[in-house]
Specification:
The protein is α+β, with helices and mostly antiparallel strands and 624 residues long. The chain has 3 domains: 5-313 and 431-451, no CATH class; 341-375, no CATH class; 498-623, no CATH class. Helix content is 45%, strand content 19%. The protein is built from 17 helices and 19 strands. The chain has helices spanning 5-25, 27-41, 71-83, 99-118, 121-135, 200-207, 311-338, 350-356, 383-400, 404-407, 417-429, 432-456, 499-511, 524-534, 541-559, 573-586, 590-623; strands at 46-48, 54-56, 90-92, 137-145, 151-154, 160-162, 165-171, 176-178, 191-199, 214-229, 232-255, 265-270, 273-278, 294-298, 341-342, 374-375, 461-466, 472-477, 487-489. Strands 8, 9, 10, 11, 12 and 13 form a 6-stranded antiparallel sheet that branches. It has a 3-stranded antiparallel sheet with strand order 7-4-14. Strand 17 (461-466) and strand 18 form a beta hairpin.
Length: 624
């Protein structure tokens, strides 16, 4: 630990100065994010002022219609609903075809899936998708937390000591500051700052230091009375700056490895105190390199910029134009319904007329000899309003990529099912940038989780997960058992390869007999795989028995050479022979191959005896 107070003070001042510089550079982007959030929440009479702030512009006349017809919210919600369909399951690919590598790869896959469940990755993806759709970018942070895992003892202060575990959190884009806004990839940045506001009591609990509280600007919601129409007012949620008291900005500055500092550098500053100064803590990159614990996901690419762009930025001009057309149309209809009167000066009591209007049955008294009041002929609502409204709605579809079929669930009776399917496929294709970004983010998170386990699991650990048949299984392992961190996706993108398409394709293949064996029947193993592809999982009870036989055969493959393998009368010989043959072809040890070959022969002999006995019984029944 650094003992030189002057050196500590210089580091703290340098980090805080660097943080302020990056904050000023990013301010225009933050204003756009705030404007996007206002439009998404319904405050669509906001604008970025020349002085660099979000301002509201009010009514020009008391009778002016200023309602909001929020199409942006429905478009974003439709996109989020599609993104929430993603199931980014990953599997670990083994180094080789050896049984030991295959076994460790399966173990690593189960650990990754268990970690995803423990960290609720599915819920985190939904939160991150909302941030990325509104602001254009969101981040995940994958770290090792000493406050997670099983309790393994007590400290001197009677506080529980835990074994630690992986923790994944969602980091909004407001908290991440790269060294350059023109660097598009995280790993290309020379340094990244993660700045977050904590309460002083929380800082003391986490780092054990006391810092001086200060006032910090934060975002909050407020109601803005900027809407309404003739005779009524309306308020909309407004994103504003507010002040939080007794807070502290904690700045974490991550510097990537260089030739001078091969392990990189991490500096943590809380208020005016230096909390940590040393190497990057996590070996979370390829080839056992240290790197940033962050993963980025975006809505749309912004060329030459670290942050992505939101679809809302494209829709704001259309939304303003649509609101204007609808409101001007309603103002015209107000004139038609209420009328506009012409009155000769001094002919009637105008105060009474303004207060009560032309109510049905009203007796209107005007001065003798004057011209009686009359209503002006205002005509009808021009057809241009309707044309412009329809044109803007069509532009919403063009700009957002969300058609009326997805947005409003409209059914086109004049279109065939195939044509409707093509429309849905086109909608899903427009989301490919966001979906691919999310899938890659999940893969990167899982890689980092595995690498953190390889770094910190130096002693025997136990992990509980769900087995293939839904039963709970326990696995004991250490870091040496996690040999591979090469991950692949279990399935294709759900938005381009839907479950319905896969089911139809599989059923077509089954009807053509592709899965049939030499005897013209589908083998039990293929039945299991077909049920998995169709998405039925553990739906059929017979699947449990087949899976149990397969698992018993796989266990025998691993025990070959360690103990005598025996054939039981209740074994499913076909499944056992198939699994043993697969392992036999991959074995390189001649001794083990001979032992497994002998075991296969025993299964074949037992199968012949069982088949012969069945044939004898059938003949006996026929003779009877």
């Amino acid at each position: 630990m650094i003992k030189d107070d002057k050196f500590k003070e210089d580091i703290v001042n340098e980090v805080r100065k660097d943080y302020q510089r990056r904050r000023e550079e990013r301010k225009p982007l933050e204003l756009q994010w705030r404007l996007n959030m206002n439009f998404y929440n319904g405050n669509q009479y906001a604008e970025i002022s020349p002085v660099g702030d979000i301002e509201q512009y009010g009514k020009q006349y008391f009778w002016q219609e200023r309602e909001v017809y929020n199409h942006i919210a429905s478009i974003v919600e439709t996109r989020l609903a599609k993104l929430n369909r993603l199931k980014c399951g990953v599997s670990v690919r083994p180094f080789s075809s050896d049984d030991s590598d295959v076994h460790t790869a399966k173990l690593s896959t189960q650990i990754v899936k268990a970690l995803c469940e423990e960290n609720k990755i599915a819920s985190l993806l939904n939160v991150a998708s909302t941030w990325s759709e509104v602001t254009g970018t969101c981040f995940f942070k994958t770290v090792w937390s000493a406050d997670k895992g099983r309790v393994i003892g007590l400290a001197k202060n009677k506080k529980a000591v835990k074994e630690g575990d992986v923790e994944v959190t969602v980091v909004p884009p407001y908290e991440i500051f790269p060294d350059s806004l023109t660097t598009s990839d995280i790993n290309d940045c020379q340094s990244i700052i993660h700045a977050k506001a904590y309460h002083v009591d929380e800082v003391k609990d986490i780092w054990g230091i006391e810092v001086k509280g200060e006032d910090v600007n934060v975002f909050s919601l407020d109601n803005a009375q900027i809407g309404g129409g003739l005779g009524y007012d309306a308020s909309f949620p407004n994103m504003i700056d507010s002040v939080a008291h007794d807070m502290c900005i904690v700045i974490e500055k991550y510097c990537r490895p260089t030739s001078e500092k091969p392990n990189g550098e991490l500096i943590i500053v809380a208020g005016d105190q230096l909390v940590y100064y040393g190497d990057l803590p996590y070996i979370n990159q390829e080839n056992e390199q240290r790197g940033y614990p962050f993963t980025k996901t975006i809505c749309l690419d912004k060329i030459g910029c670290f942050y992505g762009t939101s679809i809302i930025e494209r829709l704001i001009p259309l939304q303003r134009a649509y609101n204007a057309v609808k409101n001007r149309k309603h103002e015209f209809m107000n004139r038609l319904a209420m009328g506009v009167m012409t009155i000769e000066d001094g002919s009637i009591d105008t105060d009474n007329l303004e207060e009560e209007g032309l109510s049905p049955g009203k007796v209107l008294i005007y001065r003798q000899g004057s011209t009686p009041p009359r209503l002006l002929e205002v005509g009808q609502v021009p057809a241009d309003f309707q044309y412009e409204e329809e044109r803007i709605l069509s532009e919403f579809t063009t700009m957002s990529g969300v058609s009326e079929l997805s947005k409003y669930s409209n059914v086109y009776n004049q279109l065939s099912g195939k044509a409707i399917g093509l429309l849905v496929e086109q909608d899903d294709t427009r989301l490919s940038i966001a979906t691919n970004s999310l899938r890659n983010a999940v893969k990167h998170i899982c890689e980092q989780m595995l690498r953190l386990y390889k770094q910190y699991c130096t002693t025997k650990r136990v992990k509980r997960f769900s087995g293939d048949n839904g039963e709970v299984e326990l696995a004991y392992f250490t870091a040496s058992d996690l040999r591979s961190d090469d991950l692949v996706f279990d399935n294709e993108n759900e938005l381009t390869d839907t479950l319905e398409n896969r089911r139809k394709m599989v059923l077509d293949l089954v009807s053509m007999g592709i899965f049939n064996g030499e005897n013209g029947e589908i083998s039990p193993r293929n039945k299991v795989k077909i049920l998995e592809i169709l998405g039925f999982g553990n739906w059929e009870s017979g699947r449990d028995v087949d899976e149990s036989h397969r698992k018993k055969a796989l266990k025998e493959n691993l025990e070959t050479g360690k103990k005598d393998l025996k054939v039981a009368d209740y074994d499913d010989h076909d499944l056992h022979i198939e699994e043993h043959l697969k392992a036999l072809l991959e074995l390189k040890d001649e001794k083990l191959k001979a032992l497994l070959d002998e075991h296969i022969k025993q299964h074949k002999l037992a199968k012949l005896m069982t088949d012969g006995l069945q044939k004898t019984e059938e003949q006996y029944e026929k003779e009877r």
